[in-house]
Every structure is written in C-alpha cells, then in structure tokens.
Design goal:
Layout (H helix, E strand, L loop, with lengths): L6 H10 L11 E4 L5 H15 L5 E6 L7 H4 L6 H6 L13 H13 L2 H7 E5 L4 E4 L2 E3 L5 H22 E9 L3 H13 L4 E5 L2 H7 L4 H18 L5 E2 L1
Parallel strand pairs: 2-3, 2-6, 6-7
Antiparallel strand pairs: 1-4, 4-5, 7-8
Length: 238
C-alpha cells in the first residue's frame, strides 16, 4: 500500500504554512486567504476531490490571488460560484462571480470538464499569496520595490510547489507580458521547467477581448494540448 503523501496533502500543507516576507513597501498589504479557517477547509475539500493521488500534472501559473476569486475560496481562478456549480463543492461564501474565474471555467467546460482538466493540470500562481493597495488588487510586479522584496519568496515557493508532482517538461503562464517575462527570468535561475507556454491572462480577455472569447478558448485548447506533450510547435524555449 502506498503511504506517500498525495498531491492533495502536499499542496494543502504548503498553502496552510505560507507566509509572506514581513517587510513590504509602504501602503501595500499582504493578502493570505489561507489564514482563514473556512477558506482553508474549502481548499482542502477541493484538493481532496481532484488531487488525491500521486499523478504528475502540468502547472499553470497566474499572477497572484485576487480579492474575489482565490482570495475568497483559496482555490486558484475559482470564485464561490465556480466552486459550487463547476466543482460541485457547496459553500457559504457570497455568490459573487469573478471575471478571470468565469473565463477559466468556460474553457474548462469546453476542454472536457473539471474531472478531465484537473486530472492533468494544476492551477497556481507565480506569487501564491496576494496584495492590496488602497483596497484594490495589486500585482506582485506593480512596483519594482515589491518585486525585489518578494523575489526570493517566488523562487522558494515555485520550487516547493514542484514537489507536489509537477511535470517539469512544460509550464503554462497566464499573462503574456510582465508575468511571462518575470517567470522566464525566475525559471532561468531556478531551472524549473524545460518549456514555458504564454497565454493572454483571463482577466485581459474578459476586460478587453470579450467579443473574441471563443477564439481565445480555442487558443487555450491548443496550448494546453501542446503542454501535455501532444504538440510542441507553440512552445517558446526558455
């Protein structure tokens, strides 16, 4: 009988112990949803449902948690509505939709559904904890000072997450501009993944390209298929 910790157990222990660097630039606050007991429990339920095995998966990196998605549920790109309706995990969070989650779950539905998707992929973030400034979401790269302070944290947490069971042949990055550029730099230093596939961020698509949503869903399908090793023509070597 295999007694090794499952992907789910490793992931949950990682999130439950996360702590951001103590010193952040003035006016920027850390957002750690896993400090909330209810959020931790729902993230545990999600992980147990979809990751209770030792199978390797392709990792998909967003930017950092936002206030209305993972910042509430503890599940990357998953708002309370998606957690209930798509993932089948009833919850008592306010039923507020978040645009990135909306796009991601539209894509997942067309990819084959949550069981098929999570069997092969793991959604996470370059920075697994979030930030706010003046009450608004703030990206880890929105100031050079913040990026400098969290860079060691990013390298450490990417390395730690690989131990869950990452397929290191490829990774997918949501955010084809700064997030992709910074991740490539981190990947070059850490030698985490052989190939990196960039995609436009779901929030960008929903805010600026909503009328072309189906086109982007098709592009996502091509890249996710490529990252599983069925094609390599879309990869950018790093």
């Amino acid at each position: 009988m295999n007694t090794d910790p499952t992907f789910a157990e490793k992931a949950f222990n990682f999130y439950a112990r996360l702590e951001l660097p103590k010193i952040l630039p003035a006016g920027i606050l850390a957002m750690n949803p896993y400090q909330d007991e209810k959020t931790r429990e729902y993230s545990r339920l999600f992980l147990r449902k979809f990751y209770a095995d030792n199978q390797k998966r392709v990792f998909v990196f967003g930017i950092n948690p936002g206030r209305f998605g993972a910042g509430v549920t503890g599940v990357t790109f998953t708002d309370p509505v998606a957690l209930k309706m798509a993932c089948g995990i009833s919850n008592d969070f306010p039923e507020r939709k978040e645009s990135s989650s909306d796009f991601v779950y539209r894509f997942i539905a067309q990819y084959g559904g949550v069981e098929q998707f999570y069997r092969h992929f793991f959604l996470t973030a370059v920075c697994p904890l979030g930030f706010t400034k003046d009450g608004n979401n703030y990206n880890f790269y929105d100031s050079a000072e913040l990026l400098e302070k969290v860079r060691p944290f990013l390298l450490h947490t990417i390395s730690s997450q690989i131990s869950f069971g990452a397929n290191q042949d490829a990774a997918i990055i949501f955010g084809s501009g700064k997030n992709y550029k910074i991740f490539c730099d981190l990947n070059k230093e850490g030698q985490f993944f052989k190939k990196v596939y960039p995609l436009e961020h779901p929030r960008f698509i929903m805010q600026y390209r909503r009328g072309q949503m189906e086109k982007y869903i098709e592009k996502y399908k091509e890249v996710f298929t490529a990252a599983l090793g069925k094609s390599t023509k879309l990869a950018r070597g790093v």
